[in-house]
Amino acid sequence: KNQVEQSPQSLIILEGKNCTLQCNYTVSPFSNLRWYKQDTGRGPVSLTIMTFSENTKSNGRYTATLDADTKQSSLHITASQLSDSASYICVEGPGGGADGLTFGKGTHLIIQP
Amino acid sequence: GAGVSQSPSNKVTEKGKDVELRCDPISGHTALYWYRQSLGQGLEFLIYFQGNSAPDKSGLPSDRFSAERTGGSVSTLTIQRTQQEDSAVYLCASSLPNWGSYTSPLHFGNGTRLTVT
After folding, report:
1. Three-class SS state of A17
2. Cα atoms in the 13 Å half-sphere on the side-chain side of B99
3. Contact assessment for residue A70 and residue A8, using Cβ atoms and an 8 Å cutoff
4. Which residues in chain A come in under a pLDDT of 70?
5. C-beta atoms surrounding B25 within 10 Å
6. C-beta of residue B7 within 8 angstroms of C-beta of residue B75
C-alpha cells in the first residue's frame, strides 16, 4: 500500500530556532512531492512542490529537499516565528485533476516565545 | 483574488438528518476535490471532479454520501441519514490541470466542521 510517513508527530521549539521535519514515502511510481502548511481551523496552503528532477526548493524561510533514491523528503524552517505554529503535511501525487494523492498525517509544530 | 469558499463553516446536526455542504472553487479551476479530516488523522480522499464528471468515486465511505458539480463550478457534498462517525472537517480543494512540466498546487477552502449529535 502506498504510504507517506511523517516524523516527528509533534515538535516544540523556541522562537528563532531552526527545525527540520521528515517525510518518508513508499509511493511508486513517484509523481511529485508536496509540502502544505495547515493553520488551526484553516485549510492547507501549498508551500512547495518538487518533481523527480528537483532535489531542493525554497519558499522564503521554508526549504524542502527530496532524495528520490531513499524516498525521503525534509522541510527545513529557518529562524522560526510564532506564525510558523501549524501542522505541516507531506503529500505525494500528481494532483491537477488526477487522483492518486497520498497524504501524510502531518507534523504538529509549536513555536514558543 | 477570491479563494475556495466553503459553506457553512460549521454545521451541527442530529443523527439521522441529511446535510448539504457547499464548495465554490476558484474560477477557472477544472479539478475539484473533496476530503475528510478527522482529529489527528490525515486527509481522507472522498471524490474528485474533472469538470462536471467524477472519474473516481471510490473514496466515498458509503452510499449515504453523494456529490455533484454543476456548470463546472459549484459542488455540493450530501450526507444522508448522518451518523456520529460522520463528524469531521470536510475540506474542498480546486486546481488547474497539470500541463507540460507545470504541476498545479491544490487550493483548499477552510472546510466545514460537521458535528453529528
Report:
1. coil
2. 5
3. no
4. 1-2, 94-99
5. 27
6. no
Integer Rg of chain A from CA:
13
Residue B108 contacts A, CB cutoff 8 Å: yes
Percentage of chain B with pLDDT > 90? 67
The one-letter amino acid at B99: W
- Residue A32 with chain B: CB contacts under 8 Å: 103
The C-alpha angle A58, B95, B43, rounded to 5 degrees, equals 80
* A43 close contact with B: CB closer than 8 A: yes
User: What pLDDT, in 10s, does the model give residues B56-80?
Assistant: 788 899 999 999 998 889 999 999 9
Contacts of A1 (CB under 8 A, 6+ apart): A26
Strands B19-24 and B75-79: antiparallel
